[in-house]
Request: fold
Amino acid sequence: MRLFAGRSRDFSARPSVEVEGGRLELRPLRMADEHRFMALRVINTDWLAPWDATTPENPAPRNSSAGFKDMARTLIRGAQAGTHLPWLIWFTPVGEQPLLIGQLTVGPIIGGSARTTSLGYWLDERYAGRGLMTFAVALAADHLFFERGLHRVEITVRPENVASLRVVEKLGFREEGMRPRFLHIDGDWRDHRSFALTQEEIGDGLVARCRGSQSGIG
Reply:
């Protein structure tokens, strides 16, 4: 494991893994991704609406060019400061071109005596249920534990989000409890279940855990 690099300005890491039917890769978010990103968001508007982050001042998701630019600038500044890792999820089917299928964001990365962070993610509905998000989360967590030297990774999930709950359960994230009215989602303050793993709990890593699973990965 590398020494803690939570404040590293190197945010160019592109973790990848071979999965059934192709290759999955996490690529850093770029301003140039706007067209593909917005097209994917439009296709998935209804699918993502119940889980989209909002604010009391703006209770609708920011699915616009201006919203993308604001998000991207904020996350890229965070990446440059070493507090965030904004990734887009790409899947390359065998013999085909890479496809943008989702987003996974790490942050804020907290150093010092905590060495902890949180993950948030979403996936194109057309690729749900194939294990791709499970592997994407595993890739991100392994990078954070083994390359960045973090000690703890947390994921919070709305109790109603069955698909996301499957991801954390299959990766062995430990439930820590309910956080009432934790985040503003879909126009209101929503309860979330909190899950986490520490470095001592991951063994050979979460990608290896995926590979060794005897059940289907959702």
About this structure: The two ends are 29 Å apart (CA to CA).
